[in-house]
Here is the input.
Amino acid sequence: MNQSIEQLLDSTSVIPVIEITDLANALPLAQTFYDSGIKTLEIVLRTPVAIDAIRLISNNTNCLVGAGSVLTRSDAHLAKEAGAQFIVSPGFTPKLITDCESMAIPILPGVSTASEMMGLSERGLSLFKFFPASSSGGIDALKAISGPLPHLSFCPTGGVNKSNFLDYLALTNVKCVGGSWLAPSHTIIAKQWEQIRNNITETLALLDQIQL
Ligand code: 3PG
Here is the structure.
């Protein structure tokens, strides 16, 4: 039986959102994350090399690789063929949900309104990307949503960073968070692996404080 998105992300608290522009950076970056203690990665399909980066990382590391910024069936299909184990989309269409179900690949669909959440809940989904988190009301919005929709959980992304991710994770309806703060694009382009390692170490140390 296929794993649900909840099962797949069960032990994940932080998902780095990663944009790779140079394929040569894919493996050193993925290995930096893996060695530093973050094994779930979202590679966004916003560059010509993104699918090849997913393939390289899937074939050569033990990272759990997802494809982000997925908009169409074709995106999802290419990502799955390359080894992606889950799909992340900024929003959703009913067709994209059906397409991912038919391909048997879990999807973390983006939502920002109660109506979108209710619609997907009716389809049996219960874990969503809350996007764009900060401009959609951030922590206050997620707290408000937990009243009428207590059965739903979220991965807030968009404006989540080192300074606020613990506040999001403290919410009962936040399962994990996503963001680019661990490996901003300019640090990847400049191959600043040490800087990225420090970002990861710092984030995991902060996470340890609330998990004691
Ligand atoms: C995205 O899809 O771009 C993510 O939400 C990352 O957002 P961030 O750069 O604000 O972390």
Observations:
- The first strand starts at residue 14 and ends at 18.
- Residues 91 and 110 are 4 Å apart (CA to CA).
- The chain has a mean pLDDT of 97.
